[in-house]
Amino acid sequence: MKAAPEKLAFYDMDGTLVSSNVIHQYAWYARRSPQALWRMPRLWASFPLFATEFFSRRLFNVVFFRQYRGMDRAWLQSMSEPMFEAVLRPATFRGARALIEKDRADGYRTVLLTGSLDFAVAPFARWLGIDEVIATRLEFDRSGRATGRLLPPIMASEEKAAALRRLLGEYNVSSANARGYSDSTSDLPMLEAVGQPAAVNPSKGLRDRAAIRGWPILDLR
């Protein structure tokens, strides 16, 4: 039995470790799905609704992931590796692996804490050698079809920070021994929940906050 970690490092994904996002990931699946003829037009028609991201990342997730409704779980899982190779691997920032390897060398257990879907990011996490993944999860019905709803907790904003704190508690790790990395102000609750926050490839809003608070600003691009 492995000893419990004494230190944890948490990474956001989209914009932090990769230049891709959940829309790119879904579009790849949609173009290859048996329903591509109507899924792609519906995606483009839904773009005005995605402006909800500017007000609430949680609301955006609830609205956006409805796009997956009707998709088969086994098919999605079988396509996660090709999607990683086509979308996520090429979009990974040059400095992402070095950052994770440094944290691991410093004795940190590495955790991907992301609003992307669990099956979609699993190959990415394995490739980078990330120890643990906490991600958004789709609800599936008994036939294995996505309902378009998300299982709680939804990995955004406060719920993301709550998941982080739960893991700290499970491992009995002090927040002072936790690192956190993100590019967006939507993850401020997550960054504020760790003793060693860092802004990575930050938006202007997060860059300004980081400068005021004296947080490190990293560029992995």
Q: Give the helix/strand class.
A: alpha/beta
Number of domains: 1
CATH homology group? HAD superfamily/HAD-like
- Categorize the overall geometry: globular
Largest sheet: 7 strands, mixed
Q: Specify the CATH architecture.
A: 3-Layer(aba) Sandwich
User: What share of residues are in beta strands?
Assistant: 15-25%
Mean pLDDT: 94
Termini, distance in Å?
A: 38 Å
Write a brief caption for the model.
The protein is 44% helix and 18% strand. By secondary structure, it is an alpha/beta fold.
Task: Describe this protein's structure.
With 221 residues, the chain is of the alpha/beta class. It has one domain (8-218): Rossmann fold (3-Layer(aba) Sandwich), CATH 3.40.50.1000. The protein is 44% helix and 18% strand. The protein is built from 10 helices and 7 strands. Strands 4-3-2-1-5-6-7 form a 7-stranded mixed sheet. Helix 5 crosses helix 7 (118-128). The mean pLDDT is 94.
